[in-house]
Amino acid sequence: MTFNGDSTAESARSLPFVVAITGASGSVYGLRLVQFLLSKNQPIELLVSKAALMVMKEENDLVFGDNLKEELLKHLNLPADVPLTVHSLTNYGATVASGSYKTKGMAVVPCSLGTLGALAAGLTENLIHRAAAVCLKEKRPLMIVVREMPFGHIQLKNMLALSEAGAIVSCASPGFYHKPETVQDQIDFVVGRVLDQFGFDNQLFKRWKSEQKTTLKSNV
């Protein structure tokens, strides 16, 4: 008897990617990342903290009701049938809470200092923490994008601890060599660099000594 553990349907299916948006300044980075990947039909497992929703209200005048998925897709100019799953942070029975649920990895964009500290300490107080811990223990890519300045000694130690555990640690630091003309150009630069780390092909920004750049209508 021959057993094939990888069925044709399973191998053909695009593994989901986990995106977490926490309560740091810069929720536009996470929203743009979600918009771009869903526009490419990449399945997304989305985790949004209550603090992130507060930041979206303050920075972007966004107020979401009970149906976060529907309202978010409308804001991002995306159709209702894109492969997006939005999880409650209290649902420890969610797919992303288990290491046996395969994903491409996870990006926390932006990552608050509170989330940074929890991840560095191995705490699992909500589904964002648990999903990130799963990525680390399963040796899957985990990237945190911190948006803060300056960094204190504790935050630097926490970033080092996560880096030593296998995470990709970065800051939302837009470059200028691509000669940005708008705020959107700066957002796309950061998001494009996040996409690069996970092997997602993109031309959101002009690369070093390259003239290529494509745009997707943004509503973030």
Characterise the protein shown here.
The structure is a single chain. The longest helix is centred in the last third of the chain and has 15 residues, at 183-197. Helix content is 38%, strand content 13%. The chain has a single domain (13-197), classed as Flavin prenyltransferase-like (Rossmann fold), CATH 3.40.50.1950. The chain has 220 residues and is of the alpha/beta class. It is built from 8 helices and 6 strands.
Describe, in short, the structure shown.
By secondary structure, this protein is α/β, with parallel strands linked by helices.
SSE inventory with pairings:
Layout: H1 8-12, E1 17-21, H2 27-39, E2 44-48, H3 50-60, H4 68-75, E3 84-87, E4 106-111, H5 113-121, H6 127-137, E5 142-146, H7 153-164, E6 168-171, H8 183-197
Helix pairs in contact: 2-8, 5-7
Distance between the termini: 53 Å
Summarize model confidence as the mean pLDDT.
90
Structural class, please? alpha/beta
* CATH secondary-structure class: Alpha Beta
Strand content: 5-15%
In what order do the strands lie side by side in the largest sheet?
3-2-1-4-5-6
Biggest sheet, open or closed, and with what strands and sense?
Answer: 6 strands, parallel
Low-confidence stretches: 1-12
Q: What would you call the quaternary organization?
A: single chain
Residue share in helices?
25-40%
In total, the number of strands is 6
